[in-house]
Amino acid sequence: MNLSHLGNLSHFGQLLAQDSPIVQLMEDLGEALSRNPDILFLGGGNPAQVLEAQQCFQKHLQALAADSKATSDLLGVYPAPQGADSTLQALADFFALECGWRVSPANIALVSGSQLAFFILLNLFAGQTSDGGQRQVLLPLVPEYLGYSAQGLQHDFFQARKPLLKLTQPNRFKYALDAEHLDIDATVGSMCVTRPTNPSGNLLTSAEMEKLAAAARAANIPLIVDIAYGTPFPGLVYEACENPWRPGMINVMSLSKLGLPGVRTAIVIADEPIIHWVARANTIMSLANGNLGPALLERLIRSGDLARLGHTTLPDFYRGQRDFLVDALDKALNGLPYRIHEPQGAFFVWLWFEGLPVSSQVLYENLKKLGVLVMAGEPFFFGWEKSWPHARQCLRLTYCQPEEVLAQAAQIIAAEARRLFG
Ligand SMILES: Cc1ncc(COP(=O)(O)O)c(C=O)c1O
Known about the structure:
Layout: H1 11-17, H2 21-35, E1 40-41, H3 51-66, H4 68-76, H5 85-99, E2 108-111, H6 114-125, E3 127-128, E4 134-139, E5 158-160, E6 164-169, E7 172-176, E8 188-194, H7 206-219, E9 223-226, E10 249-254, E11 266-269, H8 272-286, H9 292-303, H10 305-332, E12 338-341, E13 348-353, H11 360-369, E14 372-373, E15 375-376, E16 394-398, H12 403-421
Parallel strand pairs: 1-14, 4-5, 4-8, 7-12, 8-9, 9-10
Antiparallel strand pairs: 2-11, 3-4, 6-7, 10-11, 12-13, 13-16, 15-16
Helix pairs in contact: 3-9, 5-9, 6-8, 10-12
Bound molecules: pyridoxal-5'-phosphate.
């Protein structure tokens, strides 16, 4: 057997061993953060090193290590499929207090990172059905998180809708849901949105969320809400925002953007049957989750640290970073045809160069040669075949690095854009 060709692999193998935007993103990230530290890194979604948060995690790690019963539970015991009872109870109490959600431990499952949680959830409701039909995941507006794009165990896994594009003020714009054209039919198995949105930093309004929830209810499909950056933690939302949870909704949260991507822990909140299915699928694929994330999570909740990090520490830090980068870009890009998406949440600036003479992929490659790593916009527009020039004119910039890095990167991006626009 020739092992060097994808063609020799099974259908599953071809889908999972292929190159894809998320694989390239993580390769870029690994290269920049471990092998090429001089590159100005505004690329992948690694969270910032926030001193106060790091000290807090260290304090809880030390307390864990100093407690011999906790250490032996941490290292020597497989956790139950959904997660340990005490962690699930702490989470249910936390969500009731912080968000007013009526959830019990039976509505919560822990998974090894939300990337895996989405692999399970998206494939639970879309793909080939037992009657020979095929259902897809509906993305109610793109751009959306590119990490989903290669997760389907079937080709043509997504269908996406174009957003409305609103020019909000000079050099700013915002995407809005085109509720008139959601068009949910029998080919749709679930709906999925990030709130706030990776990559645009958009915060879907409460009215838009209500429309999506009502449409999902009417079609009898789940609405999956990815709260990787949202409230109650890590809380990277710079205006008032509440995320509801109701039967029929699936909320997915993660410890990663809190500053703990290394512990690979995500939380799924859903109706009881869905929680059972997620826990079973997780057990088949990975047997059990790691214990470190859940153990830290429980301590963060009980000490009140999780609420503090999500209410003030992290939003204050990232708001400062956002303001710095937006200001640096406004100054450096002055006179160029650019617009920044209203930066309402997450840790990204989504930069649109209207009429860009090359694709954003070419701009990304040029910038990489100049020592600045960003994300090209195209891969975030997936699940449709439509040609929309806007989809080739945007860049995603992460603002997790120190100010001097952001300032230098803004200058280089502006110089390259000026060269391209002539
Ligand atoms: C919107 C969104 N969802 C999910 C993930 C996956 O995160 P993790 O698997 O670390 O929980 C990311 C990571 O960047 C993300 O941006």
